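Take a sample.
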Amino acid sequence: MKNKIITLTGNFRKEKFFDIINQIFEYFSNVKGYELLMTDEFLKDHSSKVLNNNINVNSFDICINKSDYIFSIGGDGTILSTIRKLSSRSVPVLGIHIGNLGFLAMSTEESLNKALDHIVANEYVIKDKVLLKTFKQSNPKEIYYSFNDVVIDHGNSGRVLKTIVSNHDEHINDYEGDGIIICTPTGSTAYSLSSGGPIVHSDLDVLTITPISSHSLSARPIVLSSDSNIKIKFSNSFIDASLTIDGQIRLNLNKDDTIIISKAKFYAKIIFMPYYSYIQTLKEKLHWSGNSR
């Protein structure tokens, strides 16, 4: 039977990254049927780190093309970056959080062996999660994918940004404020939530538009079908604007730019452990109190 291949990647700058790498290799040294790879981003700055001698290191693309699973080690931002780098390559991702449990991770360092037990026993679920596809209408070949959100804000200007937003060429609203957020259900607990957007269960197949610091009390978040094709233009009063992908890639925009945002044709595949509860995670991260009665 062919070995299952696991690629380890993540934020090598975090203090415990290499400890977790070695812990995973030590675990699988006693398990047959698995081969482990590691991406090589760490080599430039951390080649002297003590690693298991059996670690096979290669580029991200070479590792991913061989892999059955990806273990993304770091914080939620690391998992976002890993998913974005995968693009259309649908390899299931397990998030391993360094520190406290994040919204996107299934394991911490303390619960790692438990999670690996479930992987080996095939006691997990792989769920498809919505990704956003974003491009400028003037350059449709330069595409950006995001797992959480796309933010259009006033850039370096302190002035109000007016965005003209439509869906399938049907006008929705002219938003005046600091900008707007278009997010996936997974991203609804990120920037959108802090801007007054709704919490949308991550299993749903929808998109949300949330205004940022709107100058109109009537401008409210709206939840749309994931089949939406959102078009964003700017008014004649445009001074400056920026587009940010998952809080990690930032692009300057011009007055004549038209931004197109829709659901990607492929999904991110995320590994969920049998003990995971979306509601329990919300309660822990948002400090909700009270017990069921």
